[in-house]
Design a protein that fits this description.
84% helix; flat
């Protein structure tokens, strides 16, 4: 169950990271409420996962899911550069996440 909590927490981290862009400095009410809700839920689920998972592994995977997802959504939603070098580096992060999962 801890891995499921961690996965959902990572997806919610993507949500609040992308949500920050839409809040326009927390001047837009609806995106701000959704972003803060994603933050709170993400931290709560991360804390649940930390009950059984090692903190180093869980934190690295949580931030990795958020980083990879946010980088990919940045390309899709905001027209950030879609270069092979960028995708290669994202792939390295994914390889690290999979490696951590395999050894934990």
């Amino acid at each position: 169950m801890a891995w499921i909590y961690l996965l959902i927490a990572g997806l919610l981290e993507m949500g609040w990271a992308i949500g920050l862009k839409y809040t326009q400095g927390f001047t837009k009410l609806a995106p701000s409420v959704v972003t803060v809700a994603c933050m709170i839920l993400s931290f709560l689920l991360l804390s649940k996962a930390l009950r059984t998972l090692p903190v180093g592994t869980a934190y690295a995977i949580w931030t990795g899911i958020g980083a990879v997802g946010t980088a990919l959504l940045g390309v899709v939603l905001f027209g950030e550069p879609a270069e092979m070098k960028r995708f290669f580096c994202i792939g390295l992060i994914v390889a690290g996440l999979l490696g951590l999962r395999l050894v934990s």
